[in-house]
Specification:
Keywords: Membrane, Transmembrane, Transmembrane helix. It is built from four helices and eight strands; from the N terminus they run βαααββββββαβ. It is of the alpha+beta class. A hairpin with a 3-residue loop joins strand 5 and strand 6.
């Protein structure tokens, strides 16, 4: 909801899906996440080659190799979901989140605490179909703040929030195209 003072207000209860979407968006912008993806890909290739070579040379598969490959697949497919559930447990314990976005930054309030972030603390953002994700300026995007679109009062508030974010922050990925001062 946009108030008369120019503030944009969101109110929502976090879900696991919010965090899955946020972690996926963060992974696309974080150098450490890209390194992890390369490491996982290299591990997958090595395990696959070892499996094929073992099968071709011995005509059978070794149990440790099969177990290693199965564990790898489980980790690969379940990592984001496990992280999302972990973040959700922490956030759900705090209850409903109320967020105010204005020219000074972002203020997040729960029943337990209130914290404010200035725009320099969140210089980048990512937009996904369901959320705006504010990211810290470090290359690993170590801090993230979720702004679920469903927490806004009206569909027009999405455009207003996007305009505010564009004014005070940079869409992640666009910073490479922004001219340097």
């Amino acid at each position: 909801m946009v108030t008369e003072t120019g503030k944009i207000e969101l109110s929502y209860t976090p879900t696991v899906e919010d965090f899955k979407e946020a972690l996926g968006a963060r992974a696309r912008t974080s150098k450490s996440a890209r390194r992890t993806r390369w490491l996982l890909a290299a591990t997958g290739v090595c395990l696959t080659v070892a499996t094929v070579l073992g099968l071709a040379q011995k005509g059978r598969l070794d149990v440790p190799l099969i177990v290693g490959l199965a564990v790898f697949v489980v980790i690969l497919l379940g990592q984001t979901g496990l992280q999302a559930r972990s973040f959700h447990r922490l956030a759900a314990a705090k209850g409903e989140q109320r967020i105010v976005v204005d020219e000074s930054g972002v203020t997040v309030s729960t029943a337990q605490a209130t914290h404010s972030l200035s725009w320099p603390a969140t210089p980048r953002y990512v937009e996904t179909p369901g959320i705006f994700l504010l990211l810290s300026g470090d290359e690993n995007a170590s801090t993230m703040t979720l702004l679920p679109k469903r927490g806004l009062g009206a569909a027009t508030d999405v455009d207003r929030l996007r305009a505010v974010l564009d004014q005070y922050s940079v869409r992640a990925g666009a910073e490479r195209n922004r001219p340097r001062p």
